[in-house]
Design brief:
Chain lengths: ~280, ~525
C-alpha cells in the first residue's frame, strides 16, 4: 500500500492540503483546517485528517494533545461545552457537520459514541439498549424492538451473558460487560460511524481483549475512530493511525507504516517511549 | 522518635528523601506525631458525642414538656344528665301532629314517604306523590271521602286564598307545597327549641336545695354551653326522641374539667382559683353519684375552633393546613423544578442568570413576614382574592418555598453525573429528552428532599399568614381552599394567647397534632423518594 503523505509540521500548516488518505480509499470523514478553541485557549491547530470508510482509525498521542477534542468534534459533543468553538471544515460524506444543513441530533444518531468510563443508564439492560431506538422511533413495534435489542447485544458479544437477565439493571454488570453494553447501546441506533474515547482504559486486560476483538468484528459494518493511550492497542486494532502532539496532527498513515517507519521525529519519539 | 527507628541505618532513608535537616528520620517524626493525631481524633469524637447527647436531651425535654402538658387534652370530663324532652317544650304549637297526620294519610295511600318528617322537602314530596293517581291526590287534599278531612290543610288553603278544585295538577302542587311548608316549619321548630332550658332543668334537678339566682346560675354553668348543640343535633338526627327521657353525656365546663384533671387545685385559697368552694362541693357530689366520667375527647378532633375550651377542636385548622399545603405544593413544586431545570440545563451562563441566581439565593433569606405583606398588598388588594382563604395562604407560602426548592433542585440536577448526560447526548437525545428521561428522574430524590424541607417550613409558618387574615377566629371547618380558615401554627398561636387554663393543654395537644402531621408528610415524601430510588 502506498500511503505517501507529508507530515504536518507546525511550520507547514499554511501549505496546501495534503490528502491524508490515498485515493482508492473511500473517505467517510474529511477534516480540513479544523481548529478548536476553549475560550481564548486554542486546543487544536488546523487539523487535516481523512478517516476512511469501514476501517479503524486510531488517534494516539500524549495526554492533552487534543485527540479526544478532535474525536468529540466528529459528533459535535463539544457543543455541550459552552465556551468551546470549532472552526474549519469537518465533512461527513461531503457535508460539513457544522453547517446548518446538519441537525446535531440527527448527526449523533449517525455517529455513535462510546466513552472512556462505561456509562450505562441506571435502567434495565433492555431499556439501555432500547433507549436509542425508542427516542429515534427506529423500532416499528414491540417485536422489532426486541429484535433490535437482541441483534445489538449479539453484535456486542453480550447476548449469551445477559439474555436471561435483560430486566436487571445495566449498572449491575461488570466493567467490561458494561462497556460492551454501551457499545451495544450505540450499535442499536444503527450508526454509520462509532467513536470510541479510550474505551478500554478502565478495563482489565481480559475485558480489553474482548473489546478489541469486538472492534475488529464491528469494522465489517462501521467506520470506527478510536482514541487510545495504548500503542499496542492502536497497533492491534487499527488500520490507520494518527499521531497528535500539542494540538497538532503530526503524522497520519497506515498503522503499520506509522509504527515501523514513522516520518516525524516526534512520532518516533512517542512510539519508542522517549516522551509522552 | 523512637530509638529503634533512629538507630537503624537505612540507606534510602538517609538519602535526601528520608533524612531531614536536623538529622532525624521522617518516619520517626511521623511516629512521634501519631499519638497527638489520635488524641485529636478522640477529642473530636468526644465533642461529637457530647453534642449529640446534649441535642437528644434537649429534644427529650421538649417532647416530655409538650406531651406532659398536652396529653390531658385528649380526655374530657363529661357528666351524664337525664334530660326529659317534653313535646310541649320542644314543639309547643304542635307542628308535628298536623303534618304527621297528612304524611300518614299519604303513606296509607301508597306514597313513598319513608323519611323523617323534618327532612321532607318539595322534591321528596313530589317524588312521593308521583305514584299516586288522580283520585288519591284529590282525596288526600280534601280529606273526603275519609270524612276526617284535613282541617289544617283546609285552613291553610283558606289563608292562601286557594280554592278547592278538582284539577289534579293544581292539587298535586298544592299538596307538595303544603307538605314542604309544614315540614320546614317543623324543622325550624326543632332547631330553635329551647334545649338550654331543658338542660338547665335537668342539672338543677340534681341539686334541689340550691336556691337564689346566683347559685342557680353557677349550677347551670357547670355544664358546657355546647351541651345545647349536642342535644339539638341528637333531636334533629332522630325526632323520635321527642317525648322521651334520655341520659346524655355532655361536656362539663372547662373550669370543672381542669379541676377534675388536677390543673386547678382545691387546696389554694378560694379567692385565688376560678372554682368556688361551692362548685367544688357540687362537683364532688356529682362525682359521688358516679355520673361524672373522663372520656376520650372526640370533639378535639372533630370540631372547629371555639371560645369555650371544652368545645374547641383542631379539625378546622388541620383542614386549613391541608388546603394551604395543597395550594403551596401545586404552585411551588412545578414552578421551582421548572426554574431549576432552566437555570441549570438551558440558561446561558451570563450576568443576567448570575443576577437571577443571587436573587433566588437571597430570596430564601427574606423574613417570612415580608412575604405576608406582599400577599396582602398584591394578592388581596390588587387581585382582590378572598381574605383568610387557604388559597392566598398557599400562594404566599409558595413564594416562600420556591427558593428552597429551586436551590435544592439545582444542587440535585448538578449532582447527576455528566457521564449520563454524555451517554444520552451521544445517542442523539435532544436536550429536553436528556433532561426528562435521565437527569430529572435521577435528581428526583434530591428534589423531593428539598421539597419536603420547604413544605415543612411552610407548614410551620405563622407570620405571613397573619398578614393575610388567616389569624381570624374561624369556627366552621373549611370545605375548600376558598373558605376562611386558619392553619395549625396560627391555631396554636391563638390558643396560646387565650387566658383560659384549659387552652394551655389544648395548645400542647395542637402542637402534638402539628408534629404528627409533619411526620406523616415526611413519611409520605420518604416513601416517594424510595420509590424513585428503586426505579432508577
Amino acid at each position: 500500500m502506498s500511503t505517501v503523505h507529508t507530515p504536518m509540521a507546525a511550520d507547514a500548516l499554511s501549505e496546501s492540503h495534503h490528502p491524508t488518505a490515498p485515493q482508492h480509499r473511500e473517505v467517510k470523514y474529511a477534516a480540513r483546517k479544523a481548529c478548536v478553541f476553549y475560550g481564548e485557549k486554542q486546543a487544536l491547530f488546523d487539523v487535516d485528517l481523512d478517516i476512511p470508510l469501514k476501517e479503524v482509525t486510531a488517534l494516539i498521542g500524549p495526554s492533552g494533545c487534543g485527540k479526544s477534542t478532535f474525536l468529540r468534534c466528529l459528533n459535535r459533543m463539544n457543543d455541550t461545552i459552552p465556551i468551546c468553538r470549532v472552526t474549519g471544515d469537518i465533512k461527513l460524506d461531503g457535508t460539513d457537520i457544522y453547517s446548518k444543513a446538519i441537525d446535531v441530533v440527527h448527526l449523533r444518531a449517525r455517529v455513535g459514541m462510546v466513552f472512556q468510563k462505561p456509562n450505562p443508564f441506571p435502567k434495565s439492560i433492555f431499556d439501555n439498549i432500547a433507549y436509542g431506538p425508542r427516542i429515534h422511533g427506529i423500532a416499528r413495534d414491540k417485536t422489532h424492538l426486541d429484535e433490535i435489542v437482541q441483534t445489538s447485544l449479539e453484535k456486542a458479544g453480550l447476548w449469551a451473558e445477559v439474555k436471561d437477565r435483560l430486566a436487571e439493571p445495566g449498572t449491575g454488570l461488570s466493567g467490561g460487560q458494561q462497556q460492551r453494553l454501551c457499545i451495544a447501546r450505540c450499535v442499536a441506533v444503527q450508526p454509520e460511524v462509532i467513536l470510541m474515547d479510550e474505551p478500554c482504559s478502565a478495563l482489565d486486560p481480559i475485558a480489553t481483549a474482548k473489546i478489541e476483538e469486538l472492534i475488529d468484528e464491528l469494522r465489517e459494518n462501521y467506520t470506527i475512530v478510536i482514541v487510545t493511550h495504548s500503542m499496542q492497542q492502536a497497533a492491534r486494532v487499527s488500520q490507520r493511525t494518527a499521531f497528535f502532539h500539542l494540538g497538532e496532527l503530526v503524522e497520519c498513515g497506515d498503522t503499520e507504516q506509522v509504527f515501523t517507519n514513522p516520518q516525524d521525529d516526534r512520532t518516533q519519539g512517542y512510539i519508542t517511549g522517549r516522551f509522552g | 522518635m523512637t530509638d529503634a527507628v533512629a538507630t537503624e541505618p537505612s540507606p534510602t532513608l538517609d538519602s535526601a528523601n528520608g533524612g531531614l535537616d536536623d538529622g532525624t528520620l521522617a518516619s520517626a517524626r511521623v511516629a512521634a506525631g501519631l499519638s497527638k493525631r489520635y488524641a485529636a481524633e478522640r477529642r473530636f469524637r468526644l465533642y461529637g458525642i457530647i453534642a449529640v447527647l446534649f441535642a437528644l436531651s434537649c429534644l427529650t425535654l421538649l417532647f416530655s414538656t409538650i406531651i406532659g402538658n398536652g396529653y390531658s387534652a385528649f380526655t374530657q370530663t363529661m357528666v351524664a344528665l337525664d334530660v326529659s324532652l317534653y313535646p310541649q317544650d320542644i314543639d309547643p304549637n304542635n307542628t308535628k301532629d298536623s303534618t304527621q297526620a297528612l304524611v300518614d294519610r299519604m303513606k296509607a295511600k301508597g306514597a313513598a314517604l319513608d323519611m323523617d318528617l323534618h327532612k321532607i322537602d318539595n322534591r321528596h314530596a313530589k317524588d312521593a306523590l308521583a305514584k299516586a293517581d288522580t283520585s288519591t291526590v284529590i282525596e288526600l287534599a280534601t280529606g273526603s271521602p275519609l270524612g276526617v278531612g284535613s282541617p289544617e290543610l283546609l285552613a291553610w288553603m283558606k289563608d292562601h286564598a286557594i280554592r278547592e278544585s278538582s284539577d289534579e295538577k293544581a292539587t298535586r302542587g298544592l299538596l307538595i307545597e303544603y307538605l314542604g311548608e309544614q315540614a320546614s316549619a317543623y324543622r325550624r321548630t326543632l332547631q330553635t327549641a329551647n334545649y338550654q332550658a331543658l338542660i338547665n332543668q335537668s342539672i338543677l334537678d340534681l341539686f334541689p336545695e340550691v336556691s337564689g339566682r346566683r347559685d342557680k346560675r353557677a349550677v347551670r354553668n357547670m355544664v358546657s354551653p355546647g351541651a345545647t348543640f349536642l342535644i339539638r343535633n341528637m333531636v334533629l338526627d332522630d325526632p323520635g326522641l321527642v317525648g322521651k327521657r334520655l341520659t346524655v353525656e355532655v361536656p362539663m365546663s372547662d373550669d370543672l374539667d381542669m379541676l377534675n384533671k388536677g390543673h386547678i387545685r382545691a387546696d389554694v385559697a378560694e379567692s385565688d382559683r376560678r372554682v368556688s368552694d361551692k362548685e367544688i362541693d357540687w362537683f364532688t357530689r356529682l362525682k359521688d353519684r358516679g355520673i361524672v366520667e373522663s372520656q376520650f375527647n372526640v370533639g378535639f378532633f372533630t370540631h372547629g375552633d371555639s371560645r369555650e375550651p371544652e368545645l374547641a377542636g383542631i379539625l378546622g385548622a388541620v383542614m386549613g393546613s391541608i388546603y394551604t399545603m395543597m395550594v403551596t405544593l401545586a404552585l411551588s413544586f412545578p414552578l421551582a423544578v421548572g426554574a431549576a431545570i432552566y437555570l441549570e440545563e438551558f440558561a446561558p451562563k451570563n450576568k443576567w442568570t448570575q443576577l437571577i441566581e443571587v436573587n433566588i439565593n437571597n430570596l430564601a433569606a427574606v423574613p417570612s413576614i415580608v412575604f405576608g405583606l406582599l400577599g396582602l398588598a398584591v394578592f388581596l388588594n390588587v387581585f382582590g382574592l378572598p381574605r383568610s382563604a387557604p388559597v392566598v395562604g398557599g400562594m404566599v407560602l409558595a413564594l416562600m418555598t420556591l427558593p428552597t426548592i429551586i436551590i435544592a433542585a439545582r444542587a440535585a440536577l448538578k449532582a447527576v453525573p455528566p457521564s449520563i448526560r454524555e451517554a444520552a447526548y451521544g445517542l442523539g437525545a435532544s436536550p429536553l429528552q436528556v433532561v426528562f428521561h435521565h437527569v430529572l428522574p435521577l435528581s428526583m430524590p434530591g428534589i423531593l428532599t428539598g421539597t419536603i424541607i420547604g413544605m415543612a417550613q411552610a407548614l410551620g409558618e405563622t407570620a405571613p399568614l397573619l398578614m393575610i387574615g388567616m389569624v381570624a377566629f374561624v369556627v366552621d371547618i373549611p370545605g375548600g381552599p376558598l373558605d376562611p380558615a386558619t392553619v395549625m401554627p396560627v391555631q396554636i398561636y391563638l390558643w396560646a394567647d387565650s387566658p383560659e387554663r384549659a387552652f394551655v393543654e389544648r395548645t400542647s395537644a395542637a402542637i402534638m397534632v402539628l408534629l404528627g402531621f409533619l411526620v406523616l408528610m415526611n413519611a409520605f415524601a420518604v416513601v416517594l423518594r424510595k420509590r424513585f430510588e428503586r426505579r432508577w
